[in-house]
Amino acid sequence: MDKLKKCQCEDMSEEEKIAIIEEFIDEYKNKEGSLIQVLHIAQTIYGYLPINIQKLIADGLDKPLSEVSGVVSFYSFFSTTPRGKYTIRVCLGTACYVRGGKKILDKLQEILGIGVGETTEDQKFTLEVMRCIGACGLAPAISINDTVYKQVNPDKLSEILEKY
Ligand code: FES
């Protein structure tokens, strides 16, 4: 766990990140379900899973690259492109959708100049949509990393983003 905490350091060099991923590959190599676990860890450390990291994992776990790439593309929480420092998720569950979730999404796309699944050029924000985040009574809701914003007014979005 200490290793993972250390891995969240933004100043870590590429070589250091790869060395830590290799350590985890060694540790998980012969364990059941190791691929998904190593991919999770690698994404946490590296930020995303480009093809060179997928290859490293495939070689380390002795699996074909096609299997690793297949898993990465199957699960939406794995990303093959760099993600922003902050991930904004707009809830499009029923309650939020009915109470204006789509307007919030439109407004965010306008403010940030990106579409769903994209990241701003300065690598600050990634925009995603999701289903119910458990705040239906106070819909519409969005989350930015671990913080949930409820009863969001599209006109207040700039104010919220300024905090980041
Ligand atoms: S539908 Fe959005 S929080 Fe439940």
From TrEMBL:
**Keywords from the UniProt entry:** 2Fe-2S, Iron, Iron-sulfur, Metal-binding
Where does this protein come from, organism-wise?
Vallitalea longa
Question: What is the protein's given name?
Answer: NADH dehydrogenase
- Give the protein's cofactors: [2Fe-2S] cluster
Explain how, and how many, cofactor molecules are bound: Binds 1 [2Fe-2S] cluster.
The protein's GO terms of the molecular function aspect are: 2 iron, 2 sulfur cluster binding; metal ion binding; oxidoreductase activity
Q: Which family does it belong to?
A: Belongs to the complex I 24 kDa subunit family.
- Tell me which SUPFAM superfamilies the record gives: Thioredoxin-like (SSF52833)
- Record-linked Pfam families: 2Fe-2S_thioredx
What InterPro entries does the record tag this protein with?
A: NADP_DH_HndA-like, NuoE-like, NuoE_dom, NuoE_N, Thioredoxin-like_sf
Entries under Gene3D superfamilies matching the protein: Glutaredoxin, NADH-quinone oxidoreductase subunit E
Determine if Iron-sulfur is one of this entry's keywords: yes
- List ligand-binding residues for [2Fe-2S] cluster: 91, 96, 132, 136
